[in-house]
Write a sequence for this structure.
C-alpha cells in the first residue's frame, strides 16, 4: 500500500550492522573522508585566475582585436576608394578624348613608324600606346598633345607591319591609363626612307 515503508530483510540488517560495527570499515570511511578533505584543501590552496582578472583580460583582448580589424578595414576602404576614384576620373577623361591619324607610314628595312596625329577635342592627351597582334612588345610614346594640337610621333619597331593600333593615354595621378574605347587601327603605308 501507498505510504508504507518496506522493512529490510534480515540479511540486509546483518550487513548494515556488520558494516557499522566493523572497525576496518570505519577506518576506510575515515581515510576516504580525510583524503577528500586533503584534496579539497590542495585545490583551495592553489590560486586560479579570479573572475575580475579574467573579465579584464577578455575585454582587453576584444578591444585589441577590434582595433586591429578597424585599422585594416580603414586602410582597405581608403585604398579601394582612391582606386575607384582614379578609374572614374580616367573613364570621364577618356570619354572626352578624340584624335585623328593624318599620316601613318613605315620605312622599309629600318622599321621606323611615323604617325601624324591631331587632337580634335579640348581634353589633352598625355601620350599614345602603339601595339599590334604581330608585334611582341607594346610601345608607349609620352608626347603630350594639348587640345586641338597636332604632333608627329616616330618610333622604331622590331619588324615591318601592315596595321597598328593607336591608343590614347591619359594621366591620372601618377598612372598613365589607356583609353581603349578610343583605339584606332591604322593602315601603314610602306615608304623607302623615314620619315614619310
Amino acid at each position: 500500500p501507498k505510504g508504507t515503508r518496506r522493512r529490510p530483510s534480515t540479511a540486509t540488517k546483518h550487513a548494515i550492522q556488520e558494516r557499522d560495527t566493523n572497525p576496518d570499515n570505519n577506518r576506510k570511511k575515515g581515510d576516504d573522508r580525510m583524503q577528500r578533505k586533503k584534496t579539497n584543501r590542495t585545490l583551495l590552496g592553489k590560486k586560479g585566475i579570479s573572475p575580475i582578472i579574467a573579465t579584464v583580460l577578455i575585454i582587453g583582448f576584444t578591444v585589441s582585436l577590434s582595433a586591429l580589424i578597424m585599422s585594416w578595414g580603414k586602410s582597405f576602404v581608403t585604398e579601394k576608394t582612391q582606386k575607384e576614384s582614379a578609374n572614374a576620373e580616367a573613364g570621364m577623361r577618356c570619354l572626352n578624348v578624340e584624335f585623328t591619324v593624318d599620316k601613318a607610314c613605315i620605312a622599309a628595312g629600318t622599321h621606323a613608324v611615323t604617325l601624324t596625329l591631331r587632337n580634335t577635342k579640348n581634353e589633352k592627351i598625355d601620350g599614345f600606346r602603339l601595339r599590334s597582334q604581330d608585334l611582341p612588345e607594346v610601345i608607349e610614346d609620352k608626347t603630350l598633345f594639348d587640345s586641338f594640337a597636332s604632333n608627329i610621333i616616330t618610333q622604331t619597331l622590331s619588324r615591318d607591319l601592315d596595321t597598328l593600333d593607336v591608343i590614347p593615354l591619359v594621366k591620372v595621378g601618377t598612372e598613365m591609363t589607356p583609353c581603349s574605347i578610343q583605339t584606332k587601327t591604322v593602315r601603314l603605308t610602306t615608304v623607302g626612307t623615314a620619315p614619310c
The mean pLDDT is 80. The first strand starts at residue 99 and ends at 107. Residues 168 and 190 are 23 Å apart (CA to CA).
